[in-house]
Amino acid sequence: MRQFNKFKDTKGFITIWERVIRFRYMITEQAKERCRILAFWERHGTEATEEAFMVSRRTLFRWQKKLKEKNGQLEGLNALSQASNKRRKRNVEENILKKIIELRTLHPRLGKEKIHALLKYEGSVSTVGRIISDLKEKKLLPSGKKFSMHANTGRLVERKIKKTKKKLRRPKGYRVLEVDTVIRFIDGVKRYILTATDTEKHTAFAACYTNHGSNSASDFLKKCVAVLPNCPKAVQTDNGSEFALHFDQACNSLSLERFHTYPRSPKMNAHVERFNRTLDEEFLKYHRALLRDDVVVFNDALVDWLLWYNGERPHHSLSLLSPFQYIFNSLSATECQMWWTN
């Protein structure tokens, strides 16, 4: 009788099972189970495996063959798709297809309900919708592209759909650094004051800029992270253009989570809006000429006022403590020494 080794040219299943534990994130649960069965087969033989796992000898050899084809890689035991190779195709009369194409060519915005009514089709509205989808995939219907006139050349240019990233909204009670912009128009000169407030510690920072670009907002954010003690790890802004390109890049480089408010919803940035009022009533009204004439000197004066605001000015929301005093009171004696300044 001819004898052969059924495990010839196959990597040891016990070794493979040990690899499953190391690389379990790369394969499915079903593949792990198959590998465990093959390891049992190598140890205890065919009869014991058939009795223990109700798996036929033919199936064991089929799994072994798959593993050989993949050169012993565990992914070879992953289950393949069980979808049928021959799928049923939708059969539609030719005159119905021609009529739908004709209607959609003449009236591109016509929906499936109205087409169904015009055709007096025996099938359902959903069936008409699926037929339209099939025709779109085959590119037999107008694409519905939008065109606009180019300002320089006067030619029609296709308007491409911009894919916008989904904006995150801050969960209730989540600590963030709220950032906003205050615009002042003085004697024909525009100035932009960027402001920021910690929603928990109530520390604040502000700086004046001569332009409204995202580069200015990016520079302001970096200063906030450097200046504010224990700065939050998340930022919330409105949907202004200054909080776009470079500001977004700065958030990524500083590993800050980004949140947006809803359009026309300043109440979602209530902390920084209240700080804007305090800034206006206690500082900006008395330094309008300086704000107009010399931004550098204005920012120096603003830093002095911010030191007083954060270090000495009592806050009703903090039981008449300043933000720095509130932070010191919440720290232990050892930690407190880290924050003392000259």
From TrEMBL:
InterPro entries in alphabetical order: Integrase_cat-core, RNaseH-like_sf, RNaseH_sf
Gene3D superfamilies, per the entry: Ribonuclease H-like superfamily/Ribonuclease H
GO BP: any one term: DNA integration
PROSITE patterns per record: INTEGRASE
UniProt xrefs under Pfam families: rve_3
PANTHER family, per database record: INTEGRASE CORE DOMAIN PROTEIN, LOW CALCIUM RESPONSE LOCUS PROTEIN T
Name recorded for this polypeptide: Integrase catalytic domain-containing protein
Species assigned in the record: Candidatus Komeilibacteria bacterium CG11_big_fil_rev_8_21_14_0_20_36_20
Source species taxonomy: Bacteria, Candidatus Komeiliibacteriota
